[in-house]
């Protein structure tokens, strides 16, 4: 997934929207078929505000190393309290996808992060 994210950024630099959409489709396929690492807080989704209208994203991580960097990011930003790693399937996000303020998943918050919408 990390290489796909890097490809999306490269296509973005070249303003190649068609290629970005193809990469996004590949990322979504990976998300749908792989276990995902996320964090919970008091057994709830961790929602990261995005914008000023109540919109939010939910962080996921591609691997244990990215999770550790993400947890450090939370600590540095004083957001680490009660964060618990959890391995989930895409169905875990099914209910929240109906929330109009949910913008998508934030992949690897502490490194080359990427937001992918699950509204397809």
> Could you list the spans in which at least 5 consecutive residues all have pLDDT below 50?
none
Mean model confidence by pLDDT: 90
Order of helices and strands: HHEEEEHEEE
Compute the number of helices.
3
Structural class: alpha+beta
Approximately what portion of the residues adopt beta-strand conformation? Answer: 25-35%
Describe this structure in words.
Helices cover 35% and strands 26% of the residues. It is an alpha+beta fold. The protein has a domain at 35-116. Strands 1, 2, 3, 4, 5, 6 and 7 form a seven-stranded mixed beta sheet that branches. The chain starts with a helix and ends with a strand.
Provide a compact summary of the structure.
This protein is α+β, with helices and mostly antiparallel strands. The chain is built from 3 helices and 7 strands. Strands 1, 2, 3, 4, 5, 6 and 7 form a 7-stranded mixed β-sheet that branches.
List the helices and strands and how they pair.
Blueprint: H1 2-13, H2 17-33, E1 36-41, E2 44-45, E3 48-49, E4 56-61, H3 64-76, E5 83-88, E6 102-107, E7 114-116
Parallel strand pairs: 4-6
Antiparallel strand pairs: 1-2, 1-4, 1-5, 3-4, 6-7
